[in-house]
Specification:
single chain; 565 residues; alpha/beta; TIM Barrel; Oligo-1,6-glucosidase, domain 2; Immunoglobulin-like; eight-stranded parallel β-sheet; five-stranded antiparallel β-sheet; 20 strands; disordered N terminus; binds 1-deoxynojirimycin
């Protein structure tokens, strides 16, 4: 692939013009019949990705791992998990993607490693230079060094009987946090980053990267924080220095994109990372818009979830479309491997499955920023119904439910059923539904996680064969984005901020104006703006016939139209 791009304006970049497709390898495609997706399975589907028209693949971790958190606990950064294949398989995938002009970004998980990583094994033995690779503290075995809570539930500390000290883990106990204050740790990480960049990858999605710097002295967190300790480990004192160092010593020498995952980050905070020369990041995944349906204490609050209000959602998205997307650049997403399926969460996976999935696609692909599509969204995969904890693989769901039991908040799974069925990360991890064949064509054997039984109707093969399908709508939107600079670089202006059903905005670049009207509800809604136009043209609609004009008319349930004004 040619690394030299002729850019039309100085602030244009390939990653701003790209549509990214996220792959969760365990659930994507099993080529060798062991029930687990693998790298050759992805290579088999490169043609599929190309036909959808995506420009970049973000590959979730494929590194060697004991899989307590499905690869986000890395045992060896430079080798491929056996179940997924070999390094030669990975190289073949990279070549196959590049041959079709699709770039590849890898997941960079460096807030923590697996406790089986050689560095941790040596650290727990106090082995020479590795002694301070992790965050160790003295203390009696019954009292953790501070009150910080793990993101996955329970305390963020585990006592290690070998070293007779506590170690910090912001996630699972099998994921000890690296000590970024130690310059040897940073050197090792930079060498590893360079090693992957030299293999020809096109960038990184940086996992939990806002957690790498912790407050000096690791003080107790305020008890009224949603996650106790968060104030002391998110956006810590040296975070910008560390990111700048990584950028200067590695990424600055390559034409690579970066997108940093930053939970619990406000829009202004996210923007701070994008200031040039401050941390070298291109985009931030911030999650403000993902909190609209959370309870007041965050995601895992009993009895409070699922309600959301379009006006609040519009306000948050419009904030991000302001400074974050206009001065800098935004990362556009509604789903990923940690979140419920978007059509079940923000649309209607029953009566208006098709219309609402297409509406959500229209939204994602017509905002300012780089859109990220999560596998299966392109043909409307939905949530499943979990009847017991035995059906759950996700370490976070299990940790959160255990915490509810331990704190006496619940006595049985039934009391948490609704909560689990709303938030479980396994909704996104059920195998890709390729076809109507047994196991949805994902594998010949028993899949590692149950297939959603709606695969007979909802699958890629059926969607490809139907020109009006959700899949073809995605394809058309991607084409439109590729053809129209206005969809990429145009400004964003919100109309009707207080309308409770309609989400409408105008994208403008030079003389061109595009209007997007989304009726984000299952009732008709009257669109009335007073915009004066002589002739308008429908570029794309999710209903068979949406009239070019008049603009002011009743929009049908989940109708989504892109007009040229
Ligand atoms: C965020 C990742 O997206 C998630 O899957 C993982 O469990 C945590 N970071 C910890 O690495």
């Amino acid at each position: 692939m040619s690394r030299v791009e002729v850019l039309k304006q100085p602030d244009e970049s390939w990653w701003k013009e790209a549509v990214v497709y996220q792959i969760y390898p365990r659930s994507f495609n099993d080529s060798d019949g062991d029930g687990v997706g693998d790298i050759p399975g992805i290579t088999e589907k490169v043609e599929y990705l190309d036909s959808l028209g995506v420009d970049v693949v973000w590959l979730c971790p494929v590194y060697d791992s004991p899989n307590h958190d499905n690869g986000y606990d890395i045992r060896d950064y430079r080798s491929i998990l056996d179940e997924f294949g070999t390094m030669a398989d990975w190289e073949a995938l990279l070549d196959a993607l590049h041959a079709r002009d699709i770039r590849l970004i890898m997941d960079l998980v460096v807030n923590h490693t697996s406790n089986e990583h050689d560095w941790f094994q040596r650290s727990r033995q106090r082995d020479g230079e590795y002694e301070d690779y992790y965050i160790w503290r003295d203390g009696s075995p019954d009292e953790p060094p501070n009150n910080w809570e793990s993101v996955f539930g329970g305390p963020a500390w585990t006592y290690d009987d070998d070293r007779k000290q506590w170690y910090l883990h912001l996630f699972d106990e099998n994921q000890p946090d690296l000590n970024w204050r130690n310059s040897d740790v940073r050197e090792d990480i930079k060498e590893m980053i360079t090693w992957w960049l030299d293999k020809g990858i096109d960038g990184f999605r940086m996992d939990a990267i806002n957690f790498i710097s912790k407050t000096d002295g690791l003080p107790d967190g305020d008890l009224d924080e949603q996650l106790v300790g968060h104030q002391h480990y998110a956006h810590g004192p040296h975070i910008h220095d560390y990111l700048q160092e990584i950028y200067d010593d590695t990424l600055a020498n390559y034409d690579a994109m970066t997108v940093a995952e930053m939970g619990g980050t406000s829009i202004p905070q996210a923007a701070e990372y994008l200031v040039e020369g401050q941390s070298g990041l291109d985009m931030v995944f911030q999650f403000n818009h993902m909190s609209v349906d959370e309870g007041s204490d965050g995601q895992w609050t009993l009895d409070e979830w699922g309600e959301w209000d379009l006006t609040e959602f519009k306000e948050i998205v419009t904030d991000a479309q302001g400074e974050l997307a206009t001065t800098f650049w935004d990362a556009l997403f509604l789903g990923n491997h940690d979140l419920p399926r978007i059509v079940s969460r923000f649309g209607d996976d029953g009566a208006y499955h098709e219309e609402s999935a297409k509406l959500i696609a229209t939204f994602l692909l017509t905002l300012r920023g780089t859109p990220y599509i999560y596998q299966g969204e392109e043909f409307g995969m939905t949530n499943v119904e979990f009847d017991s904890l035995n059906q759950i693989d996700d370490v976070m769901t299990i940790g959160k439910v255990e915490e509810l039991f331990e704190t006496g908040s619940i006595d049985s799974f039934e009391e948490a059923r609704g909560l689990v069925n709303y938030w479980s990360r396994d909704h996104a991890r059920t195998p890709m539904q390729w076809s109507d064949a047994p196991n949805a064509g994902f594998t010949d054997r028993e899949p590692w996680l149950e297939v959603n039984d709606n695969y007979h109707d909802i699958n890629a093969e059926t969607a490809l064969a139907d020109e009006d399908s959700i899949w073809h709508h995605y394809r058309s939107l991607i084409d439109l984005r590729h053809e129209m600079d206005t969809l990429v670089y145009g400004t964003y202006e919100l109309l009707l901020p207080d309308h409770e059903q309609l989400y409408a905005y105008i994208r403008t670049l030079d003389e061109e104006q595009l209007l997007v009207v989304l009726n984000w509800s299952d009732e008709p809604a009257m669109f009335r703006t007073g915009i004066e136009t002589n002739d308008t043209e429908v570029l794309l609609s999710n209903y068979e016939s949406s009239p070019d004009s008049p603009l002011e008319r009743e929009f049908r349930p989940y109708e989504a139209v892109v007009y040229r004004l």
